[in-house]
Amino acid sequence: MSLSWPRPRAALISVCLALLLFALFAWQLLAQGPMARVDQAVTLWLAAHRQPGLTTAMALVSDLHQTWVLLLASALLAGWFAWRLHPRWGYTLLVVPSGMLLNDGVKNVFRRARPVLEQPLVHYDSYSFPSGHAAGATVFWGAVLLVVFAHARHRGIRAAAAVITPALVALVCFSRVYLGAHYLSDVLAAVGLSTAWLVAFATAMHRR
C-alpha cells in the first residue's frame, strides 16, 4: 500500500518551499533583519492585550502539545494504524519523535534566547528558535492528515481534516507566541522545517 500523495515531484516542490520558509526566518534571525522588530512588536502587543479566559485556553492548548503528550499520542495512533490499516502506516508516526529531535538539534545551532517580558507567563531554560511545540504539532497533525487523506472514503472527512489539522497547528503556534514562550518567527520557522521533514519522511517511507 502506498500513498497517492505526495508524488515525487510534488513532494520535492513542497519540501523546497517549506525549507525556503525556514531559511527566510533563519536568515532574518542571523542578520537581525526587519523580522526582529516584527517579533518584538507582536510579542509586546500580545502581552499588553492578555485576557484571563484566553490565557487559560492558550495554556491548555500548549499543555496538550507538550513533548510527552505528543509522543504518547503518536505511539497509540501508530499501534492503531498498524493494526487497522497496515504496519507501514504505524511507522509513519515515527516522523513525530524524529522531527522533534531534528528541531532540538536546530535549536542548539541557533541558540536564540526566549522573549523577555516584565510579566512572563511561562519560564523555560531551553532555546527559542525554532519552536518545539510548533514543530511537534506540525509533524503530528500532518501525519494524521496524510493518513486520513490516504484512507478516508468520504470527501467530507478529507475536507474536514484538511481544515481542522492546519487550524490546530495554527492554534498551537498562536498559543506559544501569546504566552510569551516564543517569537512569531520561531513558530513560523518550526512549521517550515517540520513540514519539509514530514513530507520527505512520509514520501520515503511509502515509496519503499
Automatic annotation (TrEMBL):
Protein name (record): Phosphatase PAP2 family protein
Species: Ramlibacter agri
Membrane-traversing stretches: 65-83, 130-152, 159-181, 187-205
InterPro entries: PAP2/HPO, PAP2/HPO_sf
Keywords, in A-Z order: Membrane, Transmembrane, Transmembrane helix
CDD domains given in the database record: PAP2_like_2
PANTHER family: AT30094P, SPHINGOSINE-1-PHOSPHATE PHOSPHOHYDROLASE
Keyword Transmembrane helix recorded: yes
Residue ranges of every copy of the Phosphatidic acid phosphatase type 2/haloperoxidase domain listed in the record: 89-202
Gene3D superfamilies the UniProt entry points to: Phosphatidic acid phosphatase type 2/haloperoxidase
Superkingdom of origin: Bacteria
